[in-house]
């Protein structure tokens, strides 16, 4: 499943991409994203953008390997955890550099 919309005359935004669970890990996600990039380029786009959760290791690996780079970073603080002495509470979905390589 691919859900895409035009964001501007020169950009498309991918709202969602999902491969049937039983078929994951066989290259369909990569093939779909490559086909989407070609489709978008043919329609005049210079940029293809999307959001991805920091915890979504598989999707982040896929996008990074395709050449996507982080342009915005959303940060969140989990207020339900008590801070440890001398340490702040852990951010929700916190991503440490290199943690998902
Ligand atoms: C993310 C998703 C679309 C990837 O599709 P896929 O068909 O499983 O991915 P592919 O088999 O094409 O693999 C492409 C790359 O993803 C990464 N990847 C795939 N499976 C992985 C796994 N189990 N662990 C880590 N990385 C993985 C690898 O970088 C892989 O490249 P490689 O095979 O050259 O190592 C699919 O897993 C999915 O539908 N996930 C649930 C929905 C979702 O999270 N969508 C993204 C929303 S932003």
Q: Span between N and C termini?
A: 26 Å
Evaluate the radius of gyration: 17 Å
Strand order of the largest sheet: 1-2-3
Order of helices and strands: EEHEH
Compute the number of helices: 2
Brief summary:
The protein is of the alpha+beta class and 101 residues long.
List keywords for this structure.
single chain, 101 residues, Aminopeptidase, 3-stranded mixed beta sheet, 2 helices, 3 strands, 18% strand, globular
Tell me about this structure.
Helices cover 25% and strands 18% of the residues. By secondary structure, the protein is an alpha+beta fold. It has a single domain, classed as Aminopeptidase (3-Layer(aba) Sandwich). It has a 3-stranded mixed sheet with strand order 1-2-3, with helices on one face. The mean pLDDT is 89.
Produce the secondary structure layout.
Layout: E1 2-8, E2 11-17, H1 28-42, E3 47-50, H2 57-66
Parallel strand pairs: 2-3
Antiparallel strand pairs: 1-2
Residues 16-19, 24-30, 52, 56-59, 61-62, 65 line the site of coenzyme A.
């Amino acid at each position: 499943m691919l859900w895409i919309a035009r964001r501007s005359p020169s950009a498309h935004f991918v709202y969602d991409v999902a491969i049937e669970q039983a078929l994951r890990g066989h290259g369909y996600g990569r093939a779909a994203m490559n086909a989407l990039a070609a489709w978008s380029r043919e329609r005049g786009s210079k940029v293809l953008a999307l959001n991805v959760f920091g915890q979504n290791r598989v999707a982040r690996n896929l996008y990074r390997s395709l050449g996507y780079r982080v342009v915005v970073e959303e940060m969140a603080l989990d207020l339900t955890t008590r801070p440890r002495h001398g340490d702040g509470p852990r951010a929700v979905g916190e991503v440490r550099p290199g943690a998902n390589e």
